[in-house]
């Protein structure tokens, strides 16, 4: 059993707008959550470095599975797949494109889908650039046998995630509120994933990378605790619906969120350096609260909202999220409009709110 421990969630969202605007079939339920072998290979290689060792936010090194990884792969840590990784490399730059590749019958790593290419610069596209090194590492270290031996560990996390999230309900609700019809969404989980999670938006599918729920607590989980986990998925999925609307009002959003210090701490602004990125974080989390209000009891919703606001303000540095969310809720309650239709009013309010606050300082 993997050791349960508290984790501070850190989110990084990477957006590539290449959507057709046409509805796409969802992935089959047994593919909604997965762990491609190439992704696990990349995570194992990352775990052999010092990446995130101090914070514990990128690689979960507190489980029996990590101990098994160390015992099996540490003797190969001096191979080029590990040794040639840049100091302080970015985890999504190694793992993010790994799902575009697969092992063929001879053990070669072959590209099967280029739609997910995150990085236009060859230097930063770590998995693609280091493919041969990774292939040699996999063959030499016996990665294939290790992956097969631990399929049950992966299956437990995949099943737990499927139990906690209903993708059909989330997408049906969002498609009733927004006009975008993105491709299907897939969640990728691993025993090595820690607090860092991110999303990638592609034409073919949206991929969400996150830490799976603790399988020990899934059975009998309360509606409130289930919604707390759903939050980590929903606030990634809804980027595919919110972001295209934001892009159409970019000038107004830049005007409203132009005074960064009003909306974000220095650290939050470093993680999300543009007005558009900051607004999308505000909006996607506010949309989640509107969804949760229709799924929880009044008492549970109050508790969820309080914690969500705390995460956004204190944990993530979005300092005005409380008033922003309250305004979104007020606009929602004041009319029957879809969320997409009320977004321009919310942006106009944000501009006036920031100007008023500035005038008082």
Description:
Strand 3 and strand 4 form a beta hairpin. The N terminus is likely disordered. The chain is an alpha/beta fold and 361 residues long. It contains 19 helices and seven strands. The radius of gyration is 21 Å and the shape is globular. The longest helix has 22 residues.
How is this fold's topology laid out?
Elements: E1 10-15, H1 29-32, E2 33-34, H2 37-47, H3 64-73, H4 80-83, H5 91-95, E3 101-103, E4 109-111, H6 126-129, H7 131-141, H8 143-149, H9 151-164, H10 167-177, E5 185-188, E6 196-201, E7 206-209, H11 223-237, H12 239-248, H13 250-256, H14 260-263, H15 266-271, H16 275-293, H17 298-315, H18 321-334, H19 339-360
Parallel strand pairs: 1-6, 2-5, 5-7
Antiparallel strand pairs: 3-4, 6-7
Q: Into which percentage range does the β-strand content fall?
A: 5-15%
Give the proportion of residues in helices.
40-55%
Output the helix-strand order. Answer: EHEHHHHEEHHHHHEEEHHHHHHHHH
Query: What is the C-alpha radius of gyration, as a whole number of Å?
Result: 21 Å
Number of strands: 7
- Briefly note the structural class of the backbone: alpha/beta
Short description, anyone?
The protein has 361 residues and is an alpha/beta fold. The protein contains 19 helices and seven strands.
Keywords:
single chain, 361 residues, alpha/beta, five-stranded mixed β-sheet, 19 helices, globular
